[in-house]
Fold:
Amino acid sequence: MSEPAQSDRTHPVDETLPPLKMFTSGLQHVAAMYAGVVAPPMVVGPAVGLSPKETAFLVAASLFTAGIATLLQTLGFWRIGARLPFVNGVSFAGVTPMVAIGKDRGHEGITVIFGAIIVASLLGFVLAPYFCKLVRFFPPVVTGTVITLIGVSLLPVAFNWSQGGNAAADDYGSTTNIIMAAVTLVIVLALRKLLRGFLQQIAILLGLIIGTLIAIPVGITDFGAIKEADAIGFPTPFHFGAPQFEIAAIVSMCIVMLVCMTESTADMLALGKIVDRPADERTIEGGLRADTLGSAVSPLFNGFMCSAFAQNIGLVAMTKVRSRFVVAVGGGILIVLGLVPVAASVIALVPLPVLGGAGIVLFGSVAASGIQTLATAALEKGENALIVAAAVGIGLIPIAAPDFYHAFPKDLLVVLDSGISTGCVVAIVLNLAFNHLGRKPDEEEDAETVSEELANAAPLHVP
Structure:
């Protein structure tokens, strides 16, 4: 009698939690990804010649559209949505090409960017059922490498936040900023150690609150955003004008879309491991459709291309709160923040050094998950260790030597400047070369059996 009861039990991904826990856990996700959502519009807006008020409008629109995209992923409909605790927001991969497309062109530049995003997103939506079939080329030796690279690639973001976030600022890298980041890091670690139950699960949020309160007398908390923010604001459709379509811009954004789809596939595989619901082809297809549909709708409300936010995977791994409805609540909060700029400005009170201190734990958790996956990848067999060595080495180039590819064409930099994308491609190609091509049928079958066994191994648990 006990076995049927066990099989009928709701999977943690599909559980609904008590209202307070849903809200605070969802808010924690928003706090973890807020800076990542607002950064692209804050870079693109001034670059294309928008005023500060227009740039603030872009920020609100990006929060609003990130909320829509997150709801598509978590709740879904038909065959759209991964239905995992998967956060979507503005992809930073598109910042460089968007700046190149719209630089100093004002409203015209923004409308050309939006037109290119719409076309690239619709193309991605059509390709999703075919792109998802690549999942069979992601055995543990590939997924472990990519997950590790996701975490390692995000750590420089945390280090930049810890220094202040703006390299042009006078206090960038100051001892005050770095000490605040260190204090927040210690607070988060202490809370994780000392607290139990629900409070332990929201240790990141509590750490951000405590760190922000400490930062007020230190003098690095900026209240200007609250004073200048409007009480209510709606991202008027096509606020800057109807989208325009230019071939060069469309090609650039199509490349970005392929990069985003590659990274989202890797993120879904990572998250599936962490929540003990492995992402199969149908899950990835639904996730990619949600990504691309969210991106296609986003320009309607003056937002940019949306993709997975890897930093929130670290939050799921660390808190062990696996409910997709928690993240859906976070999506709802993002929509509210987009409609109520003054509420968004309250979240913006968290100083970047404080966010950076917490980010070190979050992003490090993702890398730890990758290492755990690699532990199941049979590195002692064949050339698996060589695959990991080459993929990680090449994936670290953009981090260790940011100017390494400076002589390459700008269009190629969209891919080459993403360590996640280059490392993923290298791992897939080498896995094909060493573990598939030239094998006899019986060897191929044995290899696939091993991969399946490893893929179905115990789920990842980050301490």
